[in-house]
Amino acid sequence: MWIQPEEVLLAGALWVSERANPFFVLQRRRGHGRGGGLSGLLVGTLDVVLDSSARVAPYRILLQTADSQIYWNIACGSSRKEITEHWDWLESNLLQTISIFDNDEDITTFVKGKISGIIAEENRLKQDEEQEEDSGKFREAELKMRKLFGMPNEEKLVNYYSCSYWKGRVPRQGWLYLSVNHLCFYSFLLGKEVTLVVPWTEVTQLEKNATLLFPESVRVSTRHTEHFFSVFLNINDTFKLMEQLANIAMRQLLDNEAFLADRSLPKPCKTLKNVSALKRDFDARAKNERYRAMFRLTQDERLDGHTDCTLWTPFAKMHVVGQLFISNNYICFNSREEDLCQLIIPLREVSIVEKADSSSVLPCPVSISTKNKMNFLFANLKDRDFLVQRISDFLQRTPDSWTSDVSPLALIGHSVCNSEPCFCLFFLIPPLTYSSPRHLSFQASSSAGGAESSQKERHYHPGLPTASQGLLQLYHQDTAEDLGPKAMKEKMKEESWNIHFSEFGRGVCMYRTSRTRDLVLNGIPERLRGELWLLFSGAQNEMASHPGYYGDLVEQAMGLCSLATEEIERDLHRSMPEHRAFQNEMGIAALRRVLTAYAHRNPGIGYCQAMNIVTSVLLLYCTEEEAFWLLVALCERMLPDYYNTRVVGALVDQGVFEDLTRAFLPLLYEHMQDLGVISTISLSWFLTLFLSVMPFDSAVLLVDCFFYEGIKVIFQVALAVLHDNMDALLSCNDEGEAMTILGRYLDNVVNKQTVSPPIPHLHALLTSGDEPPPEIDVFDLIKSSYERFGSLRSDVIEQMRFKQRLKVIQSLEDTAKRSVVRAMMTESAFSIEELEELYCLFKSQHMTSCYWGSTSSAAERHDPSLPYLEQYRIDPLQFSQLYAALAPWTCGGHTSTLSARLFRLLDQNQDGLVNFKEFITGLSGMYHGDMTEKLKLLYKLHLPPALSPEEAESALEAAQFFTEDEPKGRHTDKKTHTSCFQHVVRQSFNANLLLRAAAEVKDYRYYLRMWAKENEPKKETIKDLPRMNQEQFIELCKTLYNLFGEEPLEQELYHSIATVASLLLRIGEVGKKFTNGGKKTETAAPAPPPAQTASVSPLGEDEPAEGASAEAQMCRALADAQLEPGAPQTSDEEIKDDTSVSSYSMVSSGSLPCEDITDEAVLVGGSEQRRGSVLDVDWSITFEQVLASLLTEPPLVDFFERKMDIQAKMAACKAQRAVERQTSSTSDHELTQHST
């Protein structure tokens, strides 16, 4: 690359001159290329250890003048090819021009100006590219990574770090490169080279630890080995980036979501040193995730920035120190002291933002007012003017939901709508008005219009009742008012919350403090439960920003049938059947609409068992729309991946719970592990939030705490349950006894303060014994969980979740592999080890295409809902790469053609993708089939659909070339061949009917056997294969000639193929005569019908005949047709045609030497009768004739009956990337090859 000219005082230090002329010198750095001796080893070592290779490329070009001792560095290159191109350009364009200058200063000025002009032009052309955001040093490091490890340009480097890699007991100092898809390490110390590449998708464990042997190290584990890295400059930063990259890889395995760079990030004011654009992207992603988790915001919320400040809290009459966060839709505040104060202000609620007067007590204050008359005062802001301007910018882009009449589905970007998110409705907002230079006012729309719009009801499917309020309120509205002590306590709770609302505010802008948490732990009143669930979960904000969305979803989903809707209908009446709200059509219909709407919104999840139980509880306290948005918050934010097809999130939290049990209850953990209880109980506890294992009135209090605290309260209560039953569990001898103890304990967790009539718990009725255990107050259970296990922190749980997610997803992948291998064992002849290796290679090819590009999208090629055999699929390009690496039939340049044909043959549903089962089917036929099976596969590869129409046209052109006829004489009637291209599949219905009529007494087992037999696919025989016409036969000959290029008996095989091809040509001519009615024969016997054409073949049955018998029958057939091999026709045109075709049969591929073509080989087939320039449309042969002809040649029989081993092919395929990396890093013009 051209660089801005830099002065070089010592041109010979650490460099070797390779080319020179009077003005320029091309130099190579010592330690690169061939030779160099001890000095080269030392320089190479210093380059790796000190990272000078990232600043100094191994090649450079210097500008020199005769009278000056100063050199100017004008170009550098990472390879000899690159630097040579620059050198040639200088010699061609500048050398002759500068030779006429008289003054050395003029030469230097001219060259420097020319180089600067080239650089400016290159920068202008590349100014829109992402790479220009990176520093020059970082781009050099990225080029070095690609060169060292053989990575394509699509592989993006995120960051690189200096560290030591422990190989055995010896540390190797080098550089760790973290790319989007790989972890790479390179070290070169005194001639010893270490290269390591680990795909992130293969990482099973990633942890940071400190031991005596590995101080402050990072351990990266895969299925087969462990790698240790230490001596980092900043180990925390490195480990966080590793976690992010591994998380993205796990998400790719789980949902097939490839990494997409965030191109909407604001560009930095200046290029940051050693920080890539991707590293900025990852840092922004991490901040966004923490921000969204802290304030329960939606996944599309993006943090714009944060700053330190103070917030005036009127309830405490003090300024609270914390951080202010600004995003595209919210202004949020979190106190530095935990649980002191938290605030969320949606921009849609903001009416006025103004800068107040500064003072020594209140410096740089900003006041924000909302539409519900709440005022918030922030102070001690460092850049107040910029902050106010950013808020005003976001306010202008915030759509006003009170006045917008735009369809709500046009404002969002979920799966039900293909449109992009629309944030350009700022024209609906009245303009901002400035009453003073320090005052910014945002005028809200009229309250009357807002009321009308807010009361606008969405229309639902007519004829179905709609729950416009919580089902519990509907059933309580007719009951008489209860004045008992429990009811009075409930009213006292309501009054406490009302006092709290008056002091701390109500709605989304409420101050959230430790007093709020105390009220939640004491139980939320039934009348306020739905409102507060929406508030604490963040569902309130999402519902407010998408008005009418649920109604539209209900209308779209009504009447649609899918697997999810079938499962929903099956579980509707299993959802809290003991509650009277779900014993009638109103509750059932509401539950159906909510679940169906969510399945329509998120097809990736659809419906999962346990969703019905949770949703039914939500409907008791919320309207349908509120319950829907609470379900969205649960499935997509608060319980991520819980309700997908493999309940990955629940399995992850199950692993976290095991780790917590080991940390807090070590004695119980060991005993429970021996019994295998933890994995059994935790899934049901977590998936339903204890709703399925605990009385409803008690479990709903845990749901109150869950919506406020998150998943940590579920872990706390689960640990408290185990702690309370520790003695009894330690005395258990089996899993069933432990399950009974825990089940009875949870059945007797009661809520003594509830005012609702008791709801019978089915589990309690089934597990109650003669002496029920004592009752446990749920409030005492919650209190004890906070006292004993309240030290749990959400960030610690997230860290533990990451660790478990790696284990769970990789375990699921191993389970999928074992399932695939078991399923394929009966359908292929490969061993278990071979199938496992093939599955890994197939999956690796699929994963590689996900992040290095493919002709089809990743989502199309991976569907987790399909059976394991069909989940991973590859397209033709990936298939051709695997075929070339693994298939035994390689045909040189013809390999890609054969691969494409096999792909079309295996792609039965014609979706352009092949799954693992289809891939193994084709590969097993080539490796383990007998001769007949292999020839049958080869035969099918030259018939439609394997043979495409374009290839048939190329066959016609090839025939033209070898027959030396005029092209205008060629044409064929393809309609006459269509009957030959169809596979005939017949079911044995008639035979089964006859058997049934003959039987006298038949029981149900007989009919089951008959039904199974009818549905059993009929095995294809050689008689079922269609006939092959002349075009297809030409293609078959081409394939056979290319198939034996690397065989030791190459010449014998070529001669055998020539003989077989000539014989088959004559057989086709005989068949044509019988097909045409045999008018030219001298016999008086009637010609056989076309259906008996195959009788010419020496094979009358499925079993092949012997070679001698086949030859005798062929001679008799030729004699009957008056086509003796030694008596060619007298027509010169026919002789010409026959000779040319026979010549083609032997030399069409160009691989048969001319001296091997004997006279006999040229003259056989001379009895063909066809026009010279047109392929004979009546000519055809059968597979039986092809098989019989090949059986007459022992070399061909030996070739197709030879057993082949795939182990060597698989080993070569696995080593292919390593070889490519070695070639890339040790080529003659780049790096010297060193022994490790």
UniProtKB/TrEMBL annotation:
GO cellular component: membrane
InterPro entries listed in its UniProt record: EF-hand-dom_pair, EF_Hand_1_Ca_BS, EF_hand_dom, GRAM, PH-like_dom_sf, Rab-GAP-TBC_dom, Rab-GAP_TBC_sf, TCB1D9/TCB1D9B_PH-GRAM1
Organism whose genome encodes this protein: Salarias fasciatus (Jewelled blenny)
SUPFAM superfamilies: EF-hand, Ypt/Rab-GAP domain of gyp1p
GO molecular function: calcium ion binding; GTPase activator activity
Keywords: Calcium, GTPase activation, Membrane, Metal-binding, Phosphoprotein, Repeat, Transmembrane, Transmembrane helix
Domain Rab-GAP TBC residue range list: 523-710
GO terms classed as biological process: system process
PANTHER family: PROTEIN VASCULAR ASSOCIATED DEATH 1, CHLOROPLASTIC, TBC1 DOMAIN FAMILY MEMBER 9B
Domain EF-hand: start-end pairs: 894-929
Role this protein plays: May act as a GTPase-activating protein for Rab family protein(s).
Gene that encodes the chain: tbc1d9b
Name listed for the protein in its UniProt record: TBC1 domain family member 9B
Membrane topology: Single-pass membrane protein
